[in-house]
Amino acid sequence: MSAKMVTSDQVFKDILAKKDVFILDVRNEEEYNDWKIEGKTVTSLNIPYFDFLDGTEAHLDKLPKDKPILVVCAKEGSSKFVADQLVEAGLDASYLQGGMKEWSQYYYATPVVEEDNFKLYQVNRVSKGCLSYVVVSDGEALVLDPARHVDEYIQLAEKDGAKITHILDSHLHADHISGARDLVEKTGAKYYLMKSEGANYDHEALEDYDEIKFNNVKVEVLAVKTPGHTPGSVSFFINDKYLLSGDTIFVGGLGRPDLGGKVKEWAQDLYNTVFEKIAEIADDVLVLPAHFADIKSEMADNGIVGETLGNIRKNNEIMQTTDKDAFLAEVEKSASSVKPPNFEKIVGINRGELTPSSEEAVELEIGPNRCAVHHTA
């Protein structure tokens, strides 16, 4: 009897439904420790695939007998082999379709707001902790920080009978490849990015816009007001209620300013952003960031990653460090932490200097994001 196959969508929906998920990850220890499937109700165990080549008997006492076991590997083959062995041993085992490669390309869209002529969706690339957004009003859609798999956004807009007309990147991303230019080719939409980010392709310079309007949507461009993660980092204030903060403010941290090699200068910008520019925004505004680091603490039970600015001010420890010298010292510590995998190549791609093959793009993006100050050593 063969083990059954489980999709990434099934796994994530079980996590959202607070079902117990037991994962046996058979990748090597280094890969497992760097990046794994996590969630509030997830229990995982790492036993490398090679340890199962002589059979399962030596490991059965480590595995649950009373609950399903999901076996995970890099690309599926090893996990199917182990899951089949566990089924033969009498356990309820399945394997993840496509392995962690497929998990890395899984997206989940959640409505944040659904009104008659205004909808705001958060699109969660769960494995990467990458968040993008689709705003829909009266047949038009705006996409913010699209990731590489652009059909996700086209299909989401089409479900609401909308055409994508505006595409924005809050900054040049370092942990994943932007899908903005591919989305422009497929939709003909206008693409907006700060000129100061140094992109080598045509785009609308956000420096030239105070706001972008279409139908029932007003997007205030907080350009040259929220730098820190990169010099051209931008936040967007939608309909005076929703702060799409890019990588400036997260639910549990701030955007790390060291990836451009100018940690001291950009840390000063980050301090000014947090304690001068963002200080002007009311506590009841909902902050929706471009990333999260910890699914257990930053994702709400409804699947949305976001929090009111007031609660972030209360609970985000780095935002409570008002002493400038102490703040700068804490931020500079982020420069010694592990950087996003392959970030220099990814920035080069997003700047328009490199063009990867499809397979290269997949490999470059494997692993977690590490864009927050709270990833410190």
Helix-strand layout with pairing:
Blueprint: E1 4-6, H1 8-16, E2 21-25, H2 29-34, E3 42-46, E4 69-72, H3 77-88, E5 93-96, H4 99-103, E6 108-115, E7 118-125, E8 130-137, E9 140-144, H5 151-159, E10 163-168, H6 180-187, E11 190-193, E12 204-205, E13 211-214, E14 217-222, E15 235-238, E16 242-246, H7 263-277, E17 286-289, H8 295-298, E18 307-308, H9 309-315, H10 324-333, H11 343-351, H12 358-365
Parallel strand pairs: 1-5, 2-3, 2-4, 4-5, 9-10, 10-11, 11-12, 16-17
Antiparallel strand pairs: 6-7, 7-8, 8-9, 13-14, 14-15, 15-16, 17-18
Largest sheet: 7 strands, mixed
Distance between the terminal alpha carbons, to the nearest Å?
47 Å
CATH homologous group name of the largest domain: Ribonuclease Z/Hydroxyacylglutathione hydrolase-like
Task: Write down the domain tally.
Answer: 2
Q: In percent, how much strand structure appears in the residues?
A: 15-25%
CATH architectural designation of the largest domain:
4-Layer Sandwich
What is the 3D shape?
A: globular
> What does the average pLDDT come to?
89
Derived structural class: alpha/beta
In the CATH hierarchy, the third-tier topology of the largest domain is known as: Metallo-beta-lactamase, Chain A
Report the strand count: 18
SSE order, as H and E? EHEHEEHEHEEEEHEHEEEEEEHEHEHHHH
Strand order of the largest sheet: 6-7-8-9-10-11-12
Helix content: 25-40%
Please count the helical segments: 12
What is the CA-based Rg, rounded?
Answer: 21 Å
The CATH class of the largest domain is: Alpha Beta
Which ranges are low-confidence, i.e. pLDDT below 50, for 5 or more consecutive residues? 224-229
